[in-house]
Amino acid sequence: TRTPVNVTVTGAAGQIGYALLFRIASGHLLGADVPVKLRLLEIPQGMKAAEGTAMELDDCAFPLLKGIDIFDDPNQGFDGANVALLVGARPRTKGMERGDLLSANGGIFKPQGAAINAHAADDIKVLVVGNPANTNALIAQAAAPDVPAERFTAMTRLDHNRAISQLAKKTGADVTDIKRLTIWGNHSATQYPDIFHAEIAGKNAAEVVGDEQWLADTFIPTVAKRGAAIIEARGASSAASAANAAIDHVHTWVNGTAAGDWTSMGIPSDGSYGVPEGLISSFPVTCKDGKYEIVQGLDINEFSRKRIDASVAELVEERDAVRELGLI
Length: 328
Ligand code: NAX
Known about the structure:
Strand content: 15-25%
Order of helices and strands: EHEHEHEHEHEHEEEEEHHHHEEEH
Structural class: alpha/beta
Largest sheet: 6 strands, parallel
Number of helices: 11
Number of strands: 14
Radius of gyration: 19 Å
Helix content: 40-55%
Shape: globular
Bound molecules: ligand NAX
């Protein structure tokens, strides 16, 4: 029998948390043979609702779930964590300036990074879901100097999955026929979903589509603004699809990408593709044995170059702003 893996989830009482926890407990995060212990981290006002969710988790009698603990202290919440999903964040409210948003989130992600540094297991892997995800990941990482920087990642898998689905709809292909799609840059409206290296049933996706106008005017904005469209339709932001993407991100990181395919993850740049070193930006990556590598050698055309550069410029601005606020 395997030792249970400790999975910490912040924002456990929120809507993504509610969609996420049951799938972690049923084995979708790490595998059908991997027992897990859940550590739920909330703020004091969220504790009671988190307890209610824990009661429901109990009521599922999940064979793989070996324990649930609930905390409002990050030092306890991250104690012994092997995987940390940082979902809880401060949303942007009406009239909030970007600086206010960044400093409110700094107040969450800086202490959480410090708690991870001090208390998490040596093999800790961190996924930041809470927005602004890339920059929150940068803040947490900067507060955890003893943890290898590459263990801090930000979620662009929802964007990746959205792009696959839109492309499948456009071309009549099955989602499983689509490979090698890439989200570049920031998880924001400036993100760039790139199909120039993607394949549909082995054929180049851009050639199958054959319509640059559709790419520029429909595909890219539909993917980039999908979050807003969901809010408009549902009256609440994406939750089950975001939880699903978080499951996919960690599952792929731990268990690997399929041969001939890759995925998109927000990861610290090593300078590849002209993205300044240290920025947490989305790249095409392959995963193997619990590690990821940036796919190298892709030819970046002019259409792609200017869009990648624009999203990366936004990441630079966010980094400079949090630097100025003393958060990194
Ligand atoms: P909710 O507001 O439903 O839940 C957030 C939960 O976090 C609340 O229960 C709150 O009490 C808790 N929380 C706040 N501060 C905390 C702290 N310091 N420690 C622990 N818990 C804390 O939001 P939800 O819809 O679940 O969304 C969570 C985050 O995901 C938001 O920041 C949202 O913007 C972000 N998203 C990111 C996506 C991505 O693709 N990267 C997509 C979906 C989603 O919009």
